[in-house]
Amino acid sequence: MSEEHAASAPFGRRLLTVTGMDELGAYRVLRASHVAGTGAGAAGGWAPVPGQFAMLAAVERWGGGDGERPYLPRAFSVARLSDGESHFLLEDVGPGTRRLCELRAGDGLWALGPLGHGFEPPGAGRRALLVGGGVGIAPLAILQDTLASDSPTVEVSVLLGFRDRERAAGAALLDGASVATDDGSVGYHGLVTDMLAAELERDPHATVYACGPAGMLEGIRALCAHSHIPAQLALEAGMACGFGACFGCVVARRGGGYLRVCVDGPVIDAAELERVDQHAGSAA
Amino acid sequence: MSVEFCGLQLAHPIINGSGTFDAIAARRVFGEPLLADFPFAAYVSKTITLEPRAGNPPPRLWETPAGLINSIGLPNKGLDGYMREDLPQLAELTGGASGRSAIPLVTNVMGATAEELSRLVAACDARAEIAAIELNVSCPNVKTGLDIGADPGQLQEVLRSVRALTGKPLIVKLTPNTADVSACALAAEQGGADAVSLINTLRATALAPLGRSAAGGAHGTGAQRDRWLGGGTGGLSGPAIRAVALAQVAAVSARVSIPIVGMGGVQSATHAQELLDVGATLVAVGTESFRDPAAGARIARGLA
Asked: Which of A66, B30, B68, B277 is deepest in the core (most CB within 10 A)?
């Protein structure tokens, strides 16, 4: 990825106000809007591109107070921009995500961002294959929105994998998704990578956009490497800061050394990776 | 509230802890507003070693109650890479262009032997952009396996060997992982240090959650469960260590007459003022910058 790019975020956290919390099966969609004139970066624009993320923390009961955890902010892809609101997809898997899931309209939310490198448009003549798993479908929603508005001639297909029926309800976040479930309760009984392999067999002129658990991303990386299909992987990693300071969120780079997911990603060209490691999951 | 430190004039007493703020990466993320409201009155580089280091395999982080264990492993470009690529960029962004006053640049170095440290210090001495040198002595002696900075005799010996190589202020970053930190501080002073900084992180570890293995995790001797961190152990920072920092800074202040950079879990001006009140001249902000990159500026304003 290029070292040179325009600054993406204003310097300092901005204060958002939670405007709603919607249930989506096993997930929650946190909606928040900008509070004019508040927070360190309030004057800066908020124009995330698909794949970019924000470091989120509740204003109340998040470190420094009575609660021992969560302490560090948590990284979330922007899932959608709609009517002046930013949407984030949550799954309650630990103290940070639980606290965020508790938020209600009117609560304060600190956000640092937008951060990181987002998705690049598909190459000329290639269709876009959006492949997501679990809560990792989030950045594919804003990508689908953006492709529809900015690249209306690009053919877009969406393949999503979930563990079970309750989680498969998350597929409603995107339009026209083909769904696979581990337990066969909805759609194809099996792995979303099987559906991807069939799609690529049918028409290999595609760019793959993927986000999801490490095992799924590694399957996609290996499949695309074997078939010489360009793939852009949105990675997740536990990170303390989101802006390159902590060096905690690294993944091994092909040929040696490490990439920082926050500033070198989170969207990384699959060809830059030797493999996607299983432990790259985020702090919950 | 400007402050004098080892002959350097600083606009306020808040600086960064080494390795907690990559100003070059932050400038790419935040652009020029970072420079207009730079959060620190002096900037301390991450630790530079003679040879490049890739750092530890992931996972590198573990959140604790009110804290963070990191096992980063000091990734850096090595002395030559730092001098060639990073120092010019750091000098530009801490320099006094466009009406801003210059921010003194401190380079933090670590060597496993007195010879390595001597080469690092001499190289820093030769560069006008570097205002002061901080020695990371939390490095195991290759012969004894003990941290150089944990043993007063060894520390004083190392200081004596590098003191003659530079007239720039020498700051010794003390390790808290020792029996008597004030004895180490005194040894640093007697060896010729101009200042001490403390506390570094407290040695800590975390086990992988049951049912979850860390691919990069290390097995300790006889361990039945994976360690979570790729490096096996790491260093604890954040509010969890603030009370330890306060005690150690107070103890060191009672023992030495050179200035002290106090740090450890500072989140607010109140916390910074406590360290100043027990004898620190400067206060470094570290982990709090991860939560809020502008924390240093907020804390400095709160002190004013």
From this structure: B68
Which residues in chain A are closer than 8 Å to B65, comparing Cβ atoms? Answer: 68-69, 71
Question: Are A61 and A132 part of one and the same domain?
Answer: no
Q: In chain B, what percentage of residues exceed pLDDT 90?
A: 83
pTM assigned to the model: 0.92
From chain A, pick out residues whose CB is under 8 angstroms from the CB of B55.
Answer: 247, 250, 258
Chain A residues inside the 8 Å CB shell of B25: 243-245, 260, 263
- Does any CB of chain A come closer than 8 Å to the CB of residue B207? no
Catalytic residues of B, by residue number, are 139
Q: Which of B304, B300, B220, B295 is nearest to B20 (CA)?
A: B295
Same domain, A196 and A87: no
Q: Is residue A2 part of a domain?
A: no
The answer to whether residue A243 sits within a structural domain is yes
With a pLDDT cut of 70, the percent of chain B lying above it is 93
The three-state (H, E, C) secondary structure of B236-255, written as one string: EECHHHHHHHHHHHHHHHCC
Domain B3-56+73-200+258-303 has CATH 3.30.300.70: no
- Residues ≥6 apart with Cβ < 8 Å to A65: none
Domain CATH for A106: 2.40.30.10
Is A250–B58 a contact, with Cβ atoms under 8 angstroms apart? yes
Distance CA B177, CA B301 (A): 32
Residue A7 resides in a domain: no
Higher pLDDT, B272 or B224: B272
Helix (H) / strand (E) containing A177: strand A177-181
Contact B67 A71 (CB under 8 A): yes
What interhelical angle do B269-277 and B295-303 show, nearest 10? Answer: 60
Task: Give the best residue of A1, A11, A97, A109 to mutate against chain B (max B CB count within 10 A).
Answer: A11
| pLDDT for res A68 | 72
**Per-residue pLDDT in tens (0 to 9) along chain A, 284 residues:** 344 456 778 899 999 999 999 999 999 999 999 765 444 444 457 889 999 999 999 999 887 555 578 999 999 999 999 988 999 999 999 999 999 999 999 999 999 999 999 999 998 899 999 999 999 999 999 999 999 999 999 999 999 999 999 999 999 999 999 999 999 999 999 999 999 999 999 999 999 999 999 999 999 999 999 999 999 999 999 999 999 999 999 999 999 999 999 999 999 999 999 999 876 555 56
Domains of chain A: total: 2
Within a domain: A171:
yes
* A183 and A208 belong to one structural domain: yes
DSSP secondary structure letter of residue B179:
S
Residues B239, A71: C-beta atoms closer than 8 Å = yes
What is the distance between the alpha carbons of residues B149 and B187, in angstroms, rounded to a whole number? Answer: 10
**A246/B72 Cβ within 8 A:** yes
